[in-house]
């Protein structure tokens, strides 16, 4: 299984630095953000599996020919079977590192999920004091604030969209419709779960380029996805004007006591900063990737997730 561990280690290195660096600079991601988001998820998942898998396979190599037999051999060793060869210190170190690393990732994800849920609960309590239900829109709250503000609060049982009175007075009906469609697309597509996963990945491995680049890229891509949904309700000029109005107001209101999406782990309209790539995409739209190009990206996505998984289950495949 040593060859498999070497392959997984090489794949982990490739997915940790050169691949995310190249993808973060690629121009095609703005043309097809759905495929780009899927590919980023595959890079993160494939990279994590490869990192853990390379050390796990190396550590289990003396105990069996594949994962199942190695785990069985490890159990026999723990129960006192002297016929099973005892792994050396290097193998024990690799195995321990793999287990600790996997535990660290899971624990970080659980901690991020718990922190986010607590932040949202506190934010909802604050909204009960500062907002009123919209009289014309379902699952929408209106806060009494002069600046145009819009964001969404995801929830398990009920999600809400939050609008400010300033937004309702300063934006036209078409611009309001574009903003609301943008926000509700975040809720419908559960973009908060994507942000949660990549935030946890970044917190677990802040020194890893793929975690930082992936989080930044996914944040931009989900805004592009929401823009696409908003364009089904409004034209580009209307959406652009609404985005610039909200972003400009957020920049002026950064120190306000009003609850912002960024302060509670929420998702929504930009809080003071709109990426140049996103604006360029709206100002100069390009055709999406062709069907063969999308198929190629999808195939790469599947391979990045399948290869580490298959090699973990049957690591002897590369030894044939």
TrEMBL record:
Keyword annotations: Membrane, Transmembrane, Transmembrane helix
Entries under Pfam families matching the protein: Peptidase_M56
Fetch the InterPro entries from UniProt: Beta-lactam_resp_regulator (IPR052173), Peptidase_M56 (IPR008756)
- Per the record's keyword annotation, is Cytoplasm included, yes or no? no
Q: Which PANTHER family does the protein's record reference? A: POSSIBLE SENSOR-TRANSDUCER PROTEIN BLAR (PTHR34978), SLR0241 PROTEIN (PTHR34978:SF3)
Q: Which organism is it from?
A: Glutamicibacter mysorens
Q: Does the keyword Transmembrane helix apply?
A: yes
The membrane spanning regions, by residue number, are: 40-60, 92-114, 295-314
- Name all Peptidase M56 domain ranges: 94-238
Name of the protein in its database record: Peptidase M48-like protein
């Amino acid at each position: 299984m040593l060859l498999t561990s070497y392959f997984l280690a090489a794949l982990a290195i490739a997915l940790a630095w050169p691949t995310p660096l190249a993808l973060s600079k690629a121009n095609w991601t703005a043309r097809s953000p759905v495929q780009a988001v899927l590919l980023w998820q595959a890079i993160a998942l494939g990279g994590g599996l490869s990192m853990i898998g390379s050390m796990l396979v190396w550590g289990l190599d003396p105990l069996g020919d594949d994962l199942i037999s190695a785990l069985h051999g490890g159990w026999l060793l723990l129960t006192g079977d002297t016929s099973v060869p005892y792994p050396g210190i290097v193998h024990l170190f690799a195995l321990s590192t793999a287990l600790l690393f996997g535990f660290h990732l899971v624990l970080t994800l659980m901690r991020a999920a718990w922190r986010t849920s607590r932040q949202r609960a506190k934010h909802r309590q604050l909204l009960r004091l500062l907002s009123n239900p919209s009289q014309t829109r379902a699952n929408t709250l209106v806060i009494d604030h002069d600046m145009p503000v819009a964001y969404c609060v995801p929830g398990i049982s009920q999600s809400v969209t939050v609008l400010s009175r300033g937004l309702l007075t300063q934006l036209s009906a078409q611009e309001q419709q574009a903003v609301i469609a943008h926000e509700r697309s975040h809720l419908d597509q559960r973009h908060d779960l994507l942000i949660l996963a990549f935030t946890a990945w970044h917190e677990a491995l802040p020194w890893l380029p793929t975690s930082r680049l992936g989080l930044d890229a996914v944040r931009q891509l989900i805004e592009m996805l929401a823009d696409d949904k908003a364009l089904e309700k409004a034209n580009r000029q209307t959406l652009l004007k609404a985005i610039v109005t909200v972003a400009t107001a957020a920049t002026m209101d950064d120190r306000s006591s009003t609850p912002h999406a960024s302060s509670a782990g929420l998702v929504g309209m930009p809080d003071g900063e709109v990426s140049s790539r996103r604006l360029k995409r709206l100002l100069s739209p390009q055709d999406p990737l062709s069907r063969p190009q999308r198929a190629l990206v999808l195939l790469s996505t599947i391979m990045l997730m399948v290869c580490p998984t298959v090699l973990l289950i049957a690591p002897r495949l590369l030894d044939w």
